[in-house]
Automatic annotation (TrEMBL):
The keyword Cell membrane does not apply. It comes from the Bacteria. GO terms for molecular function: metalloendopeptidase activity. Keywords: Signal. It comes from Bacillus timonensis. Residues 190-289 form the M23ase beta-sheet core domain. InterPro entries: Cell_wall_metabolism_enzyme, Dup_hybrid_motif, M23ase_b-sheet_dom. This is M23 family metallopeptidase. PANTHER family: L-ALA--D-GLU ENDOPEPTIDASE, PEPTIDASE-RELATED. The keyword Methyltransferase does not apply.
């Protein structure tokens, strides 16, 4: 069932979530690292892997990718070595996690166990895990993204967090067109990187996914804005807000439909500037590939979420 398994994994169905959760829990029992850290590392790497072409596609349930030369050791003449002793001798990080005597770089449990040894070097409490993660990834952003995903998973206690909401309640008048790539626009970061949803002042603005508030504040072009990172490592950007919802703070976990602010026309000047264009929500989506971040067109997603919500309401 190798091929259907991968197809299912891409869709993230219940069976796959269950099987992954079983693996994470098994590792938690073995290493004392809570399951949601395994889930977060795995999910972070899966998102990177799917965003890049230079990493082979995953074959099992686990998305973590360890390069053969890192697994087997840089000087190991056999980069596919599965012998835990020679791997150790050559300084590889590959380990036997399921007790079959083989350190198989394609085995989910072996991969998770090898990863746990890398990040456990300083201890299993959050601060020490952060140091372990930094030593492994050598990138601050990777560490904060993984810690953020872990927080979402631990808050909800499930891996099934792919639900979405349209950013404006459907009962409020709103309109939007596909303006992707237009040179002009109100408050994209560079060119127009997003979709403008026109609505009246004060219309509630809602989180579109499960996620963590990563950014909140003023920007000369974007005005009052909020950024939310979801478990797929997608960054959702909300700009030109009239104001923020009470109690919304950086680091806070939100879910689809959480009210984060309201529609406004802020931006294009020093903090507080508003009214230089009609009120609307600028909504952008960004993807991180482990090195850099780029924007992609949110329009088809907005249409799909709006459709799904209308359908659910009719039922
Ligand atoms: Zn815009």
């Amino acid at each position: 069932m190798g091929i259907p398994m991968v197809a299912n994994a891409a869709e993230g169905n219940q069976d796959v979530f269950q099987e992954r959760m079983y693996l994470y829990s098994k590792m938690e029992a073995l290493t004392q690292i809570p399951w949601y850290y395994y889930a977060a590392i795995d999910q972070y790497e899966r998102s990177i892997r799917r965003a890049r072409k230079d990493i082979p596609k995953e074959t099992g349930l686990i998305g973590i990718y360890i390069k053969p030369e890192v697994w087997a050791g840089a000087l190991n003449p056999n980069s596919n070595d599965t012998n835990p002793h020679s791997i150790q001798l050559f300084g590889g990080i590959g380990l036997d996690g399921n007790g079959d005597g083989v350190a198989d770089q394609t085995n989910d449990e072996d991969i998770l166990f090898a990863m746990s040894e890398q990040i456990l070097a300083y201890g299993s409490d959050p601060d020490n895990l952060k140091i372990g993660l930094w030593n492994y990834y050598k990138r601050d952003k990777s560490v904060s993204l993984i810690m953020g995903i872990a927080k979402i998973y631990s808050t909800y206690g499930t891996l099934d967090l792919d639900k979405h909401a349209f950013p404006v309640p459907l009962g409020y008048n709103h309109s939007y067109k596909n303006t992707w790539g237009d040179a002009r626009g109100w408050g994209g970061r560079r060119m127009h990187e997003g979709t403008d949803i026109f609505a009246s002042y004060g219309t509630p603005v809602r989180a579109t996914s499960y996620g963590v508030i990563e950014m909140k504040g003023w920007n000369r072009f974007g005005g009052w804005r909020i950024g939310i990172r979801d478990v797929n490592n997608t960054y959702h950007y909300f700009a030109h807000l009239n104001g923020f919802a009470k109690d919304i703070a950086i680091g806070q976990v939100v879910e689809p439909g959480t009210i984060i602010g309201s529609v406004g026309s802020s931006g294009y000047g020093p903090p507080g500037t508003a009214g230089k264009f009609p009120p609307h929500l600028h909504y952008g989506m960004y993807k991180d590939n482990g090195f850099t971040e780029w924007s992609f067109d949110p329009y088809p997603h907005l249409r799909a979420w709006e459709r799904a919500e209308r359908k659910a309401k009719k039922r």
